[in-house]
Amino acid sequence: MIRIGANPICWSNDDMKEIGGNIPLEQCLSEASEIGLEGMELGNKFPKTASEMRAKLGQYGLVFVSGWLSTFLLERDAEAELEAQRPELAFRRDSGAEVLVTCECTRTVHGSIDVPLSRRPILTPDEWARLLPRMTRFAELVKQEYGLTLVYHHHMGTVVQSEADIDRFMTGTGEAVKLLLDTGHATWAGVDPVALAARYRDRIAHIHTKDVRLDVARKAAEGDWSFLKSVLEGVYTVPGDGAVDYVAFFRELPNYTGWVIIEAEQDPEKANPKKYVAMGYANLVRFLNEAGLRKTA
Fold first, then answer.
1. Domain coordinates of the chain in residue numbers?
2. What is the pLDDT along the chain (297 residues), one digit of tens a residue?
3. Separation of alpha carbons 154 and 183, rounded Å
4. Domain Xylose isomerase-like TIM barrel: where (predicted)?
5. Cα–Cα distance measured from residue 107 to residue 133, given in angstroms and rounded to the nearest whole number
6. Mapping DSSP to helix (H, G, I), strand (E, B) and coil, where does residue 282 land?
7. What is the separation, in whole angstroms, between the first and last Cα of the chain?
8. Residue 95 to residue 53: CA distance in whole angstroms
9. How many C-beta atoms surround the C-beta of residue 37 within 10 A?
């Protein structure tokens, strides 16, 4: 079964809270429900306890999907990471999540508007050798103790951004580590998401969909922009409003089951969230149908 949800970053940003900071949670959830979405990922305005989370989302006919978790496995081993993250892991499990969205954030630059993407961290061979087995072990522990499947989010400005990074990460981690394939982050990084889907279809357990305005991506590269400056300038948009071939993408995932999440961070002053998310939702339903996959409730 494929379900379509959204990340509240479409309404209010987490890395730069003033982007959409004036939009109340209730507006986000009511609009998501009206659009036809079935679930929501975590945002900074959401309830902080699992019981409150279930109750709040339930008011709008929504369920909790998951939430980003920054890991620091280059700095501590899997057992230490697990101990540090236990409250967050329990919160996600008890709120109803089945997957754990994870990204290694040691030395990341994606949250700093003044630091260009060109300064993102590049791992040494020794660092790769440290990170990969730790990520595998962490995924195994998370599954064993919390029942959550770790889905790794490749992301601009982090240690896993390029095609070479993604390939090295996937070949170097074990089966407990699944891939969160993000069409927007792949495209902006110069990676064909269709080819990624074909290559790793058996390990893809979560999908983030956003589109890329290639003209803005080119300006970002030429101007040596930061991730957040690029977002504010409109590098991302919703599925069907940019360069990604979503029908070809979904055709490479004929057996996919799980969530397809609209996660298209934009400046809400320039791109009305309800208008754009509704457009993205309608496009996704059409793309899934054209690809031979049916979006079901």
1. 2-290
2. 899 999 999 998 777 777 777 889 999 999 999 999 999 999 999 999 999 999 999 999 999 999 999 999 999 999 999 999 999 999 999 999 999 999 999 999 999 999 999 999 999 999 999 999 999 999 999 999 999 999 999 999 999 999 999 999 999 999 999 999 999 999 999 999 999 999 999 999 999 999 999 999 999 999 999 999 999 999 999 999 999 999 999 999 999 999 999 999 888 989 999 999 999 999 999 999 999 997 654
3. 10
4. 30-272
5. 19
6. helix
7. 8
8. 6
9. 24
Express the helix, strand and coil content of the chain in percent, nearest 5 each: 45, 15, 40
210 contacts 237 by C-beta, under 8 angstroms: yes
Q: What is the Cα 220 distance to its own chain's centre? A: 21
Nearest in space to 62 (alpha carbons), one of 85, 92, 41: 41
Taking alpha carbons only, the member of 109, 204, 126, 208 closest to residue 166 is 204
Q: Is residue 145 a contact partner of residue 82, using CB atoms and an 8 Å limit?
A: yes
User: For residues 239 and 246, is the Cβ–Cβ distance under 8 A?
Assistant: yes
CA–centroid distance for 8 within its chain = 11
∠ CA 60-63-64, nearest 5°, is: 125
CA distance 246 to 252: 10
Cα 241 to chain centroid, rounded:
18
CATH number for domain 2-290, candidates 1.10.490.110, 3.20.20.150, 3.30.470.30, 3.20.20.60: 3.20.20.150
**Nearest-angstrom CA–CA distance, 103 and 185:** 13
Task: At 221, list the tokens.
Answer: 């590269």
Helices (H) and strands (E) in the chain, counts: 11, 11
Q: pTM for this structure?
A: 0.97
Tokens for 70? 């920054």
